[in-house]
Amino acid sequence: MDILTSILSGFGLAAPAGLNAWLPLLITGLAARFQLFGLKLNAPFDTLTQTWALIALSILLLVEIFADKIPAIDTINDIIHTFIRPVSGGILFAAHSGGMAGNLDPTLAFILGMLAAGSVHAVKATSRPVVTATTGGIGNPLVSFLEDLVSGAATVLALAAPLAAAFLMAVILVVAAWVVWRWRQRRKRRRAAQI
Q1: Does position 45 have pLDDT exceeding 80, yes or no?
Q2: Nearest residue to 13 via CA among 103, 143, 102, 120
Q3: Is the pTM of this model over 0.70?
């Protein structure tokens, strides 16, 4: 795998952590444990395959899934995960580069993963108040469910077809950023018209 392909496929695996910190880690740990998609994680990332780690990730995932469905609590959850989701993405990118690509410096891979997941998280955290404001909080559970679905599907896709997952996450990131930008522009125009 050349360096560009390694970076793109690492992005495809790390970016979903910006939507849900624990689901991509859990899926990756399970895939490595059961040797799905030919995934083998090298130390120290093979810790993700340990029973205790899989149980801990499952518990953390359940907490995040429920917290992210409740308006106001989801904002607190996003604030807390501002630090967790990028680290999760960094771990996934570094685990990928060490376990599959093998030709990318782990520190650089970790930083790239943090940037990938952090960018997705920034768009998610910025767009959630828009959803709350426009739907009165009613749309939050649906949007959260869709985010979890995209995170899980993109992680599986990243393990099966890494370049396709990188493309999918890039498209989602651009579309979501554009929607947030358009909403803010409309809001500014409405405020200017009221003055």
Answers
A1: yes
A2: 120
A3: yes
